[in-house]
Please model this.
Amino acid sequence: MSDTILKIDNLKVNYGGIEAVKGISFDVSKGDIVTLIGANGAGKSSTLRAIAGLVNISGGSIEFNGENLVGLDTTAIVSKGITLVPEGRKIFPDLTVEENLRIGAYMRKDNIKDDMNRVYDLFPRLRERHWQAGGTLSGGEQQMLAVGRAMMSKPKLIMMDEPSLGLAPLVVKDIFTIIREINKEGITVLLIEQNANMALKTADWAYVLETGNITMKGTGPELLEKDDIKAAYLGKK
Amino acid sequence: MKTKKITKGTLITLILIFAVLIATVILENTINANSILFTVIRKGAVYSLVAVSMNLLNGFTGLFSLGQAGFMLLGAYAYAILTIPDGVRDSVYYLFRGSSFHFSTVGFFEGILGSEGAAGFVSLILGVLIAIIVAGLVAALFAFLIGLPVLRLKSDYLAIATLGFAEILRAIFQWDKLGKVTNGANALRGYPTFSDFNITNEKGIVVLRLSSVVPLIIAGLCIFVIVLLINSSYGRAFKAVRDDEIAAEAMGINLAKHKSLSFCISSFFAGVGGALFAMFASTVQAKTFTSALTYEIFLIVVIGGIGSITGSCIASFFYIACSEWWLRFLDNTQYIGDYQIPLFRNGFRMVVFSVVIMIIVLFFRNGIFGHKELADIIDRKKKKKPGETAAADSSEKESTQEGETI
Model:
């Protein structure tokens, strides 16, 4: 196993008395695709939002490359090399595709031209439509834009919150191909999914979250074979 | 990718602006200088600046604030207090037995450069400019302080809080106890106005009238700065905050900092607008800066298009021309031959004006320009000829297409 890039220990998140995440611990190894799967309300999104500094945590620790992230604001966390692709894509609808990508590089002061071209090479559709308003793109294109925008900050770790949400099965396949491609470039990916089948096939390592606790872990193929998983997430008996 | 190249539309817009400036100078020196046209130009310029400053906040950062009149008031008072010449201060503040200030920026420069001829004119320009900048800074400082608690609020709540701030400010400025500074509820006057920029010869006869082009130039420069800001990376960040706060935050944009920045910059220019308004009106009185003034400005922003700078400017002149000039005749009893036209009496102008505004809002849902600029619209028309591109795809909304370089 390679180095740990992200280490979560006993993480707790409360929303006004309701405990959404009840003390979970997990590691993400450098260069891996790691997925958290689980049903609605399992605490997946809350975990990501806590890592990104968008919600305050009520206990536990988050370490990135050995540095403590707890108490930092999102701006500081992004500049350390973590980006979040939010749930539901959340691109900027009134900005052009190119402006959206530039916002992704907002924290950087160096030249972004090469990275812009890299994103355009990865997503030729975005280059075609670089002057179009983000809101006019199709769902799949918006997801590409959201991923491209996240890549513009030159992250070491990309966190994706349900990238397949509301997309057609064929497009979902494309998205997962892209995730593997991004990963090949050396970016660690932490993926949250309800589409357990696709997520487990793609992931190097996976955790199962249930009502705020981690109940299972293992490599993707291992979990795919487990009967509980099949019954609960894949609809097979 | 590409550096921002000047498109044909931008060029045409710039040429139009220069044409207006030159035409203003020529007209003012040839036709009757008391014509209502020049009032419209001066007031339109002032309102343009304030409308654009409001648009920066409401249209580009998505913060619905209604405090513009309050910041104008701060700017107007700061300007007036700084520039009333020492000699007339006692007569202005006679009810309070003199002012607590014995200083004017113009007088300060006259002390250094001399007050005669060209030196006096330079002193006037420098003094007025410094006072205008200070007026903006005062407004920006208040915006920063008010913003600390208020910018945590969203949409309607922010609007109510800023509106309340403006009203409180107006009351405070009329308070007798501050009379030595604000002259209480009485007007401040005697400070340099636009007509002081007319160049006169030794006998005091005007040789070159500049009183209408000066507000155009000052407002134009300020608006130009705002345009540069909007096209910078800060402007993009403002727009990102407007479009989606969570996503903007996830990209590392510090929401509190950017909201505060936008609020302060907008208020700075509202303060400058207030100073210009003081120069236009030639008296400053707190009771002018009511919430009705803010609504007027907001109406202009909506008519022009929330998120369009050129829209706000054109709407300002259109609005002022309608309310001050073109519809004036409706307020007077009119006759066709011996027949007296019914309904034409005092106040009828506002009825017709309301109808005009309703018609505009009905037919232009997003204002006259939407969130496009004049330059985009000119470029768009030119582009249609070579055949439609991929634009007509899945767009329900009009795409904010940037003009291709020609």
